[in-house]
Structure prediction request, 201 residues.
Amino acid sequence: MRFSPAQRRYNRRVILLALIYVTLLFPAVYLLDRHLVSGPVAYIVGILPAFPVIGFFVAIGACLVEETDEYQRMLLVRQSLIATGVAMTGATMWGFLEGFELLPHLVGYAWPILWFAGLGVGGCINKLIERREA
Amino acid sequence: MNNHLRALRADRGWSQQHLGDLLEVSRQSVNAIETGRYDPSLPLAFKIAELFDLAIEDVFTSPSKEQ
Prediction:
């Protein structure tokens, strides 16, 4: 499968962001779990791993803007909409059950993780539609 | 939207990949248009028609005339 220039840039960005994420996450977990930092520094150390995750969303947005192949762009839009549906459905259902104290509290960053899993679901649905109608 | 893209491409002996390269889109895009799974935008429809030196309605069938 050939990647478009926009997809190649997206892949490079995601790999770079993943490396930055790992580089920032492990020191943050180490420092904060052992209470080695406190005050404003703790907030800064704690928020740093969030930025590469935010960067993943920016990378997807940049890919949508830069993709010149309109069909590929449509596939990515559909994939992102499915991911959004999966994440919002999960957050809504868990939120209600948690509110009724039927489920434990779940940290907020679980929903971006579910969104990325939803991207995988969207990719599979795109493939299924392509095969069914080819 | 029905179209004659597959026949036009076959007449010239072009592969989907080659047509995609000429149109600056992916092979998957050409396949999706040929099979009617994706209706191209007006600019891309014009580009396709101009590549074959035809009018748009010679490549694509108007949905109102398909029945």
Remarks:
- The first helix of chain B runs from residue 5 to 12.
